[in-house]
Amino acid sequence: MITPSGNRVYGMAAEYPSAASLYEAAKQVRDAGFKRWDVHSPFPIHGMDDAMGLGKSWLSAVVLVGGITGLLTAAVLEFGPSSYLYPVIVHGKPTNFWTVPAFFPIMFELTILFSAFTAFSTMLTMNFLPRWNHPMFNWERFKRVTNDGFFLVLEARDPRFSENEARELLERTGGRHITVVHEE
Amino acid sequence: MSDRSHVLPAPEGEYFENTRFAGLSILCGLIGLVGLVLSFIGAYRSPVQFSYSWLFGFFFFFTLCIGCLFWTIVHHVVDAEWSVVVRRQLENIALLLPVLGVLFLPIWFWRAYLYRWMDVPRGVDPLLDAKRGYLNWEFFLFRAVFFFVVLTVLAYLLRRFSVRQDHDGNPQFTIWMRKAAFVGLPLFALCLTFGAFDWVMSLNWHWFSTMWGPYIFAGTAGSSMALLILVTAALQRAGYLKDVVTIEHYHIMGKWLLAFTVFWAYIGFSQYMLYWYADIPEETQYYIVRNTESWNVLSWFLVIGRFFVPFAILLWRATKKNLTWLCTLAGWIVCMQLLDVYVIVLPALHGTGVHLSILDFLPLIGIGGTLAFFYLRIVGQTSLFPVRDPRLIESLRLTN
Lengths: 184, 400
Known about the structure:
Radius of gyration of chain B: 22 Å
Strand content of chain A: 5-15%
Radius of gyration of chain A: 25 Å
Shape of chain B: globular
Largest interface: A-B, 17 and 13 residues
Helix content of chain B: over 70%
Shape of chain A: elongated
Oligomer: heterodimer
Number of domains of chain B: 1
Number of helices of chain B: 17
Number of domains of chain A: 2
Strand content of chain B: under 5%
Distance between the termini of chain B: 13 Å
Structural class of chain A: alpha+beta
Order of helices and strands of chain B: HHHHHHHHHHHHHHHHH
Number of strands of chain B: 0
Largest sheet of chain A: 4 strands, antiparallel
Number of helices of chain A: 5
C-alpha cells in the first residue's frame, strides 16, 4: 500500500493508556481475524501470548535438539578418547561404560551450553534480529515504548488490512493517536 | 498488573465443613491411634527394629511438613504473587510441626539403639572423640528442643498473622509476615541442615557429607510441593477452591516440581560422584552399603524413579497443565521421597541387604494417621485461602 505522497505504508498504529487496555485490545484484534500485527510494551505482559492467539512457540523444540546435540557431543568427546582411542586406567576407574559418572559434569555442561546458544541464536533468527532500524521508529510517539508507552500496530501486508477498517478497529479498541506508519 | 484489579471483586472466604468430613477425621484418628499402639507393642518385641522404623516414618513426615514451612517462608521473602491462593494449605501443614515435636519423643526414649555414639566411652574411638564437641547427648538434646521451638514459633506466627489479616485485611500483617520470613529463612536452613545431621547422618558417626543438608533439602522442597499439589487437588475434588485455584497455579507448581527434581539429582549426584572419584574409605562407606546386595536395587530404583521418570514426563508443558498427569507425578514423587528416606535410614540397621519388617509400616501409618487427623482439625478453622491478602486478586487472575 502506497500513500499519495509515494511512501510505502508499514501499517497503522495506535497507543494505549495501560498494559491492561493493550491486553484487551489485543484480544479484539485477534478475534477480528488479523494475522500480521504486533504489540509493543516496555515490559512483558503475562497472558499476551493467548490474547494475541500466538499459540506455542517452536523455540523449545529447537532448544531440545540443541541440548541433545550438546549431550551427544560431550559423550563422543569423552568416551571416544577415554574408552576407544587411548584407554588408560586413571585412579582405578574403569575405561568402559561405568566410568560415566566422571563424564556427567561435562555432559551436563555441554547440554546447557548448546541449549543456551541454540536458544539465543534461534531467538534472534525468529525475531529477524539484528537489524538496523524498524519502521515503527518513524513514529515520534513510539519512542515512549521503552518507558511508558503501549502500542499496537496492524501491518499493511495483512490481507485484511484496509485503511478504513484498520482505523475503525483501533478506535473501537480504545486506541489513541492513531497513525499511519511509513516504511522509510 | 494492578490496573486490572477492578475487574474481579475479592471473593468471600471459603470454609471447609468439619461436620461433612467428621467421619474421615475420626477414621484418620483411629488409624493413627491403632498404628501408634501397634508400633509401641512392636517396640517391646524388637526395640532395635522399632527405633529405626520410627525414625524412618518420623523423618519422612518431618521433611514434608518442614518443606511446607519453607514454601511459606519463601512466598513472603520473595514477595510472591501466584502462591497466595494456595498459601493457607502450606501454613496449615506447617502447623503440624509441633505435633511432630511430640512424635519425636520415641526417638528420645529409644535413642540408645539409634545413636550408638552416645554409649561409646571416651578414648575408644579417636574419630568420635574428635567430634565430641558436637556429638554429645546434652548438645543433641538442646538442638532438638531448639529446632522444634523455632519451627513451631515460625509456623505459628506466619499462620497467625495470615489468619488475622483474614479478619481486617490490614496490609501491615503482610509486612510482619515478610519480616518473620526474613528472620525465619536462615533459621529454617539451620534447623533442617543440623536436624538432618543429628537425626540421620549421625546414625553412622564415622561418615560425613557436606552435601547432606542440601540433599535433604532438595528432597524436602520437591516432595512438599508434590504434597501441596495433592492437597489442593483433593480439596478441589471435594468441591472447594473451584474458582480460586486454576490450571495456571498447577502449571507453576508443576514447574517447581520439575525444578526440584533436577536439583535433587544435581545434589545427589554431586555427593555421589565426589566420593566415588576420591575413593576414601571413610567417605565411601555410606555408598558401599547402599550400592551392594539388595540395597543396590533400591538405589537404582530411586535414581530412575526420583529423577529420570519425573524429569522426562514433567519436561513437557502439556503434562504440567494436565491435572491427572500432574497429580499422578506428585503422588509418585511423595512415594519416591518415602523410598529416599528408607534408603537413608534402614541400611544403617540392615547393612547386608533389604530386610522389610512389619514395623517399617506401623509407625508410618501411625504418624501419618495422626497428622492427617490434626490437619483435618486445623483446615476447618479458617478460610481455605487468605481472603483479604492484598495480592489475592493478582493471584486469582494468574496467567503464565
